[in-house]
Amino acid sequence: MKPPPRLQSLIEEGLIDTVVRQLMSGKEAMVFVVRIGDETRCAKIYKEATHRSFRQAVDYTENRKVKNSRSARAMAKGSRFGRQEQEAAWQSAEVDALYRLAAAGVRVPQPYNFHDGVLLMELVTDSDGDAAPRLNDVSFTTAQALAHHATLIAEVVRMLCAGVVHGDLSEFNILLAHTPGVNGADGVDEPVIIDLPQAVDAAGNNHAQRMLLRDVANLRDFFGQFAPTLLRTDYGPEIWSLYQGGLLSNDTPLTGHFERKHADVDMQAVLREIDDARAEDAARRLRMETTTAR
After folding, report:
1. Which of 59, 168, 189, 215 is catalytic?
2. Is CATH 1.20.120 what the domain over 5-293 is classified as, yes or no?
3. Using CB atoms within 10 A as the burial measure, which of 129, 131, 167, 190 is most buried?
4. Is 59 a catalytic residue?
């Protein structure tokens, strides 16, 4: 296919050889399958802010730091240069999160290069070597749903122990990848977490708790369709409570239950949760319509 302009410059610089096809177009980026020598990888082209529909970006960029003081001042003033620097910081956030989480042992795509707003990374594949499906495109048995849910709760914990909250985790940004077996053994299908430009610092973002609770609730609601017992679990508050108390580690046993203390109701927080739920439902419907139209 004819390379889009943003990838043509990477071809000219020898960073990729050919563009095979477009893989997807999402709310903040377009993804293409590319060839680099004998390797097949993917290239993620970030959309500019004016073309990006990701909601409530201010919540995700809160307290994000930049090393250059001039850039920080420009971003605070909202100047043209500041907006450009803020956009660059937004785009590089996923690269930083991918390296950080990969080092912590979280199953995310391996990043290889980031150049001019394009992220080159591993192409996550299924057992046939094709692009791995998203969870929302797959049906599961009860046993499979319980197993994948447990795996992803462990990944959420591993991310939080690394200081990161995904912030937009759902069945739409988790792939089901195939891991080949060793010495002739059968391979296994395992979840891989993608789409991290909105990832937030757990300790430095005032919305981190709310985002983590929503991420975990999304996992519960999705897998609960196949394993209804999950709908009675409460992993989110349990995980956050352990994290706040300094008691959370990758090996901390979880029960899926949490006893809440009675306190005054924060109506602003309740109304915000309602608004978030409405916006999430609208985004989910748009994703489903986009998937159906393909």
Report:
1. 168
2. no
3. 167
4. no
